[in-house]
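Researcher: Here's a chain I'd like modeled. Treat it as a single chain, no partners, no ligands.
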Amino acid sequence: MLAIVWSWGAGFALLAGLNFAIQDCAATQDAGVPPAQIFLDAWGQGATKSLLLFVIVTQLSCGNAEASRVLGHDLRFSRDPALLPGRGVCNGTSRTGVGAVVWVGFLTIPFCLPQHYPMTADTFNYAPIAFVAVPGAETLWWWFAKRVYTVPAAPVDPDLEDLERHVI
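Model: Modeled as a single isolated chain. Structure tokens:
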């Protein structure tokens, strides 16, 4: 809970600082990327490029850390039903599967909306193409790979078999 409070405070300080750093409100509103224009007006081109590079690397690192954390939680939740209040969540009931699909479908809509009107090749939002191409390629890969790939047989070791009999 304390992390949320600190995050809120830091975000508020950042937004307040950005608002006080605006030098030309009309030029900032007309800029393609208003925060970058604020930094450019306040600090110049070199410092702005450095700061934006820092922001991009930080966001990429946070995204990777979040994805790793969620993967770890998914693995733990799938292995231990005691971590969640209901066994249905761990076993993947149809209600959970349908809810997840509806939620992802709902979240996909804002990413697929056009960003500018009228749409041209320069302003077209290419996210819908990625939303179709990536699952399509994964489906084709899975379809072809399941026909070819086989699980290799484990080598038989008599010493290991003897040890397994004693342990188990």
